[in-house]
Amino acid sequence: MKKTIYALLAAGFVGLMASSAFAQSNPNPSAAAIASAREILTDKHIQELYKEAVPSLVERSKNTLLQSNLNYQKDLNEVALKVAKDMAGREKEIGDQIAKIYASRFTEQELKELVAWYKSPLGKKVIEQEPQIFAAARGFMDQWAQTFSQQVIDKFRAEMKARGKAI
User: Do residues 33 and 105 lie in contact, with contact meaning Cβ atoms separated by under 8 Å?
Assistant: First the structure.
């Protein structure tokens, strides 16, 4: 469950950051700004969100290839281990890009203030509580979606019934 929450947070965070990349306020952040952004991301443990990206993508790719090459299962399993080893560390590219995107959205001074804030007692509490808040929010969203989905289906049925077509 924890990995699922982290994966969802990563997808949302990376998607948010990537979509914002096109509307950057500073498309060429300084090395100091990027370093401050990296510090913020480290303090927030953002690397936890994508640390399994390489092994997960290797496994997914292997499974995709297995679907049409079942007779090569043993070989593909062996190759997957080699590919994972060869590609290890590439997830750092994600962290580097997130830091650059983050740095492009704030001034160097703002980033320094954020670094200090995340090291404050309140900032540390935010970092500690966010995963639990997101998990609770995700639980609510799942429950809401299930209830809402049923309401939508009921509405479809009522509208179709009004047309004389029961579904």
Answer: no
Task: Dihedral sign for Cα 96, 102, 107, 112, please.
Answer: negative
Cα–Cα distance between 94 and 101 in angstroms, integer?
11
Residue-wise pLDDT for 79-99, tens only, equals 999 999 999 999 999 999 999
Run of H or E including 103: helix 92-105
**Tokens 């969802």 belong to residue:** 8
Pick from 56, 79, 82: which is nearest to 3 by CA? Answer: 56
Tens digit of pLDDT for each residue in 41-54? 999 999 999 999 99
CA atoms of 111 and 101, how far apart (whole Å):
12
Buried-state track 93-102, b at ≥16 Cβ within 10 A, e below 16:
ebbeebbbbb
| Selection from 126, 91, 110, 96 nearest residue 34 by Cα | 96
Report the C-alpha gap between 16 and 33 in whole angstroms: 19
